[in-house]
């Protein structure tokens, strides 16, 4: 499409040029004179000679891709009659190589493909000579061949990558940098070199001017924040043909960096800082360091710290470490634990540089600093620097001369022990009571030998050694700052950075000389003793209020009371007993424990009662098997044996030989008693092979009737079980061939009192039938 358009453009241009040259070519007579202009009026003759042919320039399309020579135009003299006597000669840039002319007719051609960007025009000279004589017929004339431009070059930027910067928080439209592209095409001809700039990457932060290539910010101060994003890469595109469709493009990258401005105020990451320092620290020494946070960099992050309030304004100071931007807290004056055990300071931080108009800050600029003064063990101090005592030389040995008194300046108020520096009393005339400081005589005194004795008394703080708890003079002694309890805290809030608790003693309490709190730094604290001795007889219970403060803003605090009981120890350091209140408290159980124990006891009792009830309800074995109980029951006799031939069912030999049976067979359904009931004597029956079984049974009936151990109710005693075909007849009426009416039950009366009831029942029925 592009080639077709260019060809069409060239065709139209060539026609115009040819027409111009054809119409512009003027043939005049040589030597003709004309009077022109003001010179004619003034009487001066101005003479102008017109040449027979003239031309100015030719145009040629660049980058011709045809196979034939490219026709440029035609040179023709008015003297050319077409008879071939004239010869056209071409000289100048590229004549004969790039450009050729037909000697006969003056047609001008280009032999090569030309690039306007390499050479935009060529200067040639042409003349006409006589072919035969070589005489010039026309003076040599110069003309130009210009190359027509086509859009064959894309825009190119001066740099492949640009680097620029702009301050953060700049207003919309702030200039960042300018990019420039050039196009090698002809800027004087068409739109091939007319460029338009656009941004293809970098929206919506930046924009570019389409005519000048100036890059500007496109967002406001609140959205161009270096702390959120510092580096941007913008891609700029330059397009020729005035940005129209079909134009060629070139691109470049611009790396833009937001420079820092002081738009963030410094602040502390926590609301409270806590330090501990011994009271012996020297003035000017550092106590601790605190550091604020500033999102800016460089000079904009330089900070300055100052103490704005607190009870330690004249005791502490804070300076800024310029290398680390930390606040260094230092001591201005000596500290005394016995006077002040802690100080609270309010320290403020601010930037050295002025803040930007659009500055912001979310962290607090004031932090609370708590400085705890630690007690240092100081030597005892005497009430007076010197003592003057008088004693008579005839004073008895052991007489008290006087006394000295020293006290421990520490809050622990440790016991003091006294001794005499023997270098001042070499003869040992005196001694001192180690406990109360009384000085007494140990050797006789003689005024004539020495009327003055200068002795030095040493007061030593009594230091506790292991075991930490021991018995001394009715006092319980502990090591200094011995940990007796650890406490912790909980908070219903759930801060983002987690909980941070600070522990301290209530400033209004009177117990501060007895106990102290040491913050462990892990949301726990240790309760420590501050005295070396406690007398349980004097006071056995101490209430220690502990103040717990959180680290969030606004700070919240609460007070919990810890109860400390003093118990006595033996001389080896083992605890012996506490007071009655302590013993009761220690030995007692909580309500929950008592309820649990009571429930366990009740459950055990219930298990025992249930087990005993189950034992009592256990069913006893019946005296008679249910099938043998004839009371209101039907006895089944349909299980018959095989008779005498059935040796597997029953051994009838025992019935045939009653003598072989035991003399005394105890009943299995009662407990036998040999003392009350002697064994029964059975009547011997003669041994016969075919003895009548009925006789045997009758004998057994008599034995049972006379047996006083038989149950007191009617029962069926089974003596034998015979199968079919036995010599003994069936005892069951069900198996009898005779009917119930044919039976004679009078024999039941002969069986004894056991069968009397049965005989009355069946005998009565017989009487009813007879009547």
Automatic annotation (TrEMBL):
Q: Which Pfam families match?
A: CADH_Y-type_LIR (PF01049), Cadherin (PF00028)
Indicate the transmembrane segments per the record.
593-614
One GO biological process term is: calcium-dependent cell-cell adhesion via plasma membrane cell adhesion molecules
Quote a single Gene Ontology cellular component term: catenin complex
Annotated spans, Disordered: 728-750
Query: Which UniProt keyword terms apply here?
Result: Calcium, Cell adhesion, Cell membrane, Cleavage on pair of basic residues, Glycoprotein, Membrane, Metal-binding, Repeat, Signal, Transmembrane, Transmembrane helix
Database matches in CDD domains:
Cadherin_repeat
Ranges of biased composition (kind: Low complexity): 728-740
Task: Identify its membrane topology class.
Answer: Single-pass type I membrane protein
Q: Where in the cell is it found?
A: Cell membrane
Signal peptide segment = 1-19
Can the keyword Cell membrane be found in this entry's annotation? yes
Query: What is the first-listed, main subcellular location in coarse terms?
Result: membrane
Q: Which GO terms describe its molecular function?
A: beta-catenin binding; cadherin binding; calcium ion binding
User: What InterPro entries would the database entry show?
Assistant: Cadherin, Cadherin-like_dom, Cadherin-like_sf, Cadherin_CS, Cadherin_Y-type_LIR, Catenin-bd_sf
Q: Where is each Cadherin domain found?
A: 77-157, 158-268, 269-382, 383-461, 484-577
Reported function:
Cadherins are calcium-dependent cell adhesion proteins. They preferentially interact with themselves in a homophilic manner in connecting cells; cadherins may thus contribute to the sorting of heterogeneous cell types.
User: Mind telling me what this protein is named?
Assistant: Cadherin-10
The organism named in the record is Esox lucius (Northern pike)
């Amino acid at each position: 499409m592009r080639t077709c358009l260019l060809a069409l453009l060239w065709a139209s241009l060539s026609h115009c040029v040819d027409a111009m040259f054809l119409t512009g070519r003027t043939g005049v007579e040589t030597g003709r004179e004309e009077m022109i202009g003001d010179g004619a009026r003034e009487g001066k003759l101005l003479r102008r000679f017109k040449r027979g042919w003239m031309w100015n320039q030719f145009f040629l399309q660049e980058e011709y891709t045809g196979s034939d020579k490219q026709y440029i135009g035609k040179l023709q003299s008015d003297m050319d009659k077409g008879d071939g006597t004239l010869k056209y000669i071409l000289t100048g840039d590229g004549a004969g190589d790039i450009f050729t002319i037909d000697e006969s007719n003056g047609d001008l051609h280009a032999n090569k493909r030309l690039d306007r960007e390499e050479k935009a025009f060529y200067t040639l000279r042409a003349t006409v000579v006589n072919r035969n004589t070589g005489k010039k017929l026309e003076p040599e004339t110069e003309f130009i061949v210009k190359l027509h431009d086509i859009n064959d070059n894309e825009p190119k930027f001066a740099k492949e990558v640009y680097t620029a910067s702009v301050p953060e928080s700049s207003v919309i439209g702030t200039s960042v940098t300018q990019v420039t592209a050039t196009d090698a095409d002809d800027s004087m001809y068409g739109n091939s070199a007319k460029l338009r700039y656009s941004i293809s990457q970098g929206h919506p932060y930046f924009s570019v001017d389409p005519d000048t290539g100036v890059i500007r910010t496109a967002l406001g101060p609140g959205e161009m924040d270096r702390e959120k994003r510092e580096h941007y890469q913008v891609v700029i595109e330059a397009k020729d043909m005035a940005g129209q469709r079909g134009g060629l493009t070139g691109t470049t990258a611009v790396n833009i960096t937001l420079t820092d401005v002081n738009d963030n105020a410094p602040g502390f990451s926590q609301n409270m800082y806590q330090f501990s320092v011994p009271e012996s620290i020297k003035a000017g020494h550092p106590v601790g360091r605190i550091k604020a946070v500033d999102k800016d960099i460089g000079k904009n992050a330089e900070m300055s710290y100052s103490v704005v309030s607190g009870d330690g304004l004249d005791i502490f100071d804070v300076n800024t470490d310029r290398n680390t931007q930390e606040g260094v807290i230092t001591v201005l004056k000596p500290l005394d634990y016995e006077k002040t055990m802690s100080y609270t300071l309010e320290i403020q931080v601010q930037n050295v540089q002025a803040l930007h108009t659009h500055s912001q800050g979310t962290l607090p600029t004031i932090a609370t600093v708590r400085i705890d003064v630690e007690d240092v063990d100081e030597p005892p101090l005497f009430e007076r620097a010197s003592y003057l005592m008088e004693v008579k030389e005839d004073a008895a040995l052991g007489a008290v001369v006087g006394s000295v008194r020293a006290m421990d300046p520490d809050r622990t108020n440790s016991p003091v022990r006294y001794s005499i520096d023997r270098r001042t009393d070499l003869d040992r005339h005196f001694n001192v009571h180690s406990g109360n400081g009384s000085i007494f005589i140990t050797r006789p005194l003689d005024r004539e030998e020495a009327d003055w004795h200068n002795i030095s008394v040493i007061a030593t703080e009594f230091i506790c050694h292991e075991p930490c708890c021991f018995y001394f003079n009715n006092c319980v002694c502990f090591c200094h700052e011995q940990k007796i309890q650890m406490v912790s805290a909980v908070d219903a809030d759930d801060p983002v950075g987690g909980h941070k608790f600070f522990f301290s003693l209530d400033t209004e309490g009177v117990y501060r000389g007895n106990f102290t709190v040491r913050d462990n730094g892990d949301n726990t604290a240790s309760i420590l003793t501050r005295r070396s001795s406690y007398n349980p007889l004097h006071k056995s219970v101490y209430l220690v209020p502990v103040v717990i403060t959180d680290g969030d803003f606004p700070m919240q605090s609460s007070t919990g009371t810890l109860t400390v009981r003093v118990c006595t120890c033996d001389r080896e350091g083992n605890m012996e007993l506490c007071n009655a209140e302590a013993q009761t408290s220690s030995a007692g159980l909580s309500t929950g424990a008592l309820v649990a124990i009571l429930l366990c006891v009740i459950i055990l009792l219930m298990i025992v009662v249930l087990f005993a009830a189950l034992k009592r309800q256990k069913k006893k074995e019946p005296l008679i098997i249910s099938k043998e109980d004839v009371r209101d029951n039907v006895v089944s006799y349909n299980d018959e044996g095989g008779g005498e031939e059935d040796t597997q069912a029953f051994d009838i030999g025992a019935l045939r030989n009653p003598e072989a049976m035991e003399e005394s067979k105890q009943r299995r359904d009662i407990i036998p008693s040999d003392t009350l009931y002697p064994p029964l004597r059975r009547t011997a029956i003669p041994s016969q092979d075919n003895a009548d079984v009925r006789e045997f049974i009758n004998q057994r009936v008599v034995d049972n009737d006379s047996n006083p151990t038989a149950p007191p109710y009617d029962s069926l005693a089974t003596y034998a079980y015979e199968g079919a075909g036995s010599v003994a007849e069936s005892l069951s009426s069900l198996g009898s061939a005779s009917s119930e009416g044919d039976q004679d039950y009078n024999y039941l009366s002969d069986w004894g009192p056991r069968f009397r009831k049965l005989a009355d029942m069946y005998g009565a029925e017989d009487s009813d039938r007879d009547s």
